[in-house]
TrEMBL record:
It catalyses: chloride(in) = chloride(out). It comes from Castor canadensis. This is Bestrophin. It is found in: Cell membrane; Membrane. One of its GO terms (cellular component) is plasma membrane. Keywords: Cell membrane, Chloride, Chloride channel, Ion channel, Ion transport, Membrane, Transmembrane, Transmembrane helix, Transport. InterPro entries: Bestrophin (IPR000615), Bestrophin-like (IPR021134). One of its GO terms (molecular function) is chloride channel activity. Pfam families: Bestrophin (PF01062). PANTHER family: BESTROPHIN, BESTROPHIN-3. Forms calcium-sensitive chloride channels. Permeable to bicarbonate. Its main location: membrane.
Length: 118
């Protein structure tokens, strides 16, 4: 199998220049770094669930509220990086209408915030 792969690569090595491969790697690396540095809510969820104690109503509500804020923060970050998410939520009104914000005070604060994307 390795010999067939070597022959295949040797056959097409002259068609694709090495500089093209190196340049394409150089362009994808910043995008990959951006993807790797995005926050993942599940890691923070594990930290919150292990740090916030209580099996009663108050502990459960606190964990749920913290995770809602984490999800809202992730939504705002993805909104600033992804055009698909930005098209789905072009304004903060759309975020509030979608139900991503359950607290009325938080939604009022978010509606006052203006974002400038350049």
């Amino acid at each position: 199998y390795f010999e067939k792969l070597s022959i295949y690569c040797d056959r097409y090595a002259e068609q694709i220049p090495v500089t093209f491969c190196l340049v394409s790697i150089g362009h994808t690396e910043p995008m990959w770094n951006q993807f790797v540095n995005l926050p993942w809510p599940d890691r923070l969820m594990f930290l919150i669930s292990s740090s916030v104690y209580g099996s009663d109503q108050q502990g459960r509500l606190l964990r749920r509220t913290l995770m809602r804020y984490v999800n809202l923060t992730s939504l705002l970050i993805f909104r600033s990086v992804s055009t698909a998410v930005y098209k789905r939520f072009p304004t903060m009104d759309h975020v509030v209408e979608a139900g991503s914000v359950a607290d009325i005070r938080t939604s009022q604060i978010l509606l006052k915030i203006t974002y400038s994307y350049s």
